[in-house]
Amino acid sequence: MSANLLLYGANGYTGKLITETAALYGLQPILAGRNKAAIQQLSEEYNLPYRIAGLNDPGDVDALLDDIDVVLHAAGPFSITSKPMIEACIRNKVHYIDITGEIPVFEMARKFHEEARAAGIMIMPGAGFDVVPTDCMALSLKEQLPDATHLELAFTSPGGGISHGTATTMVQSLGQDGAIRQNGLIISKPIGYTTRKVEFGKSPILVMSIPWGDISTAYHTTGIPNIITYTGINPGIYRILKLQKLFNWFLQTNWARKKAQDYINRKPAGPSAEERKRGKSLVWGEVSNARGERKTGRLSGPDGYTLTAHSSLIIARKILEGNFCAGYQTPAGCYGANLILEIPGTEKF
Predict the structure, then answer these.
(1) At the fourth CATH level, which superfamily is domain 132-303?
(2) What share of the chain is helix, strand, coil (3-state, %, to 5)?
């Protein structure tokens, strides 16, 4: 089983964490990426096989996927890397999962549904913290209120941090608008255009609207036509962000993005093991229907990176065991609302 799983982007921050966690699920992934020195070092450290290839040449990617059953794609930015890998997976009849949270990537991947189904494979972007917990929350609430017309989801990550890969994706989005789903359509809105207070646990926390992946995926999972997603925000930082329309033009310049990227590159690759141990993920969701009825849910779990390592490997193992749904799929859409509870340290309230 294990020899048929390819982990692409294994030398990235999250890729290394997935590599470290794989043995807990009886998996021995083939490590892959473009950086031969880094991949080879990781291969020696964990005594795992490796392959080297970029994604620019379809022939190279086809060779990379020889004898592979499942690709766990962890090399961002996914707006650049996901499409060539998905296309190669369809050509070679290899299942594809990744750990993206980018709305355009989900929308792109959905367009390959019929081709993937004809090939007998599953395409599932968002097999990590983006968007497994929130997707499961969305489906759980939909099941409690089947005629729901509105869905709101929020998350916060106390004690956590972000990796270079996540920060780089954020840099590429500097100055751009956010998004909501309204009457079934994805609508552009400024990031933080609306806020609310959410009780994740002990006391209410300010959250602001952001373009989280569920704007795409939760609609596919639940069919609810109106969706807003939020993240926790410091009130002082939010006040600054409210001025963003005055300097969005500047944030979109190559100079500003290069300065931000240089700053990121000087920082550690991501949260330390101790920071991950202290961190946790809190998720809240609420649905309502035309009669004003509401259902609310909460869950807590490990920090986002730890959760991603576990959820992506759990899903990869399911596929290797023959448990998959052909075509484009969302995590909860294929595996149900209780998928999140298979992740160690997760509780639902």
Answers:
(1) Dihydrodipicolinate Reductase; domain 2 (3.30.360.10)
(2) 45, 25, 30
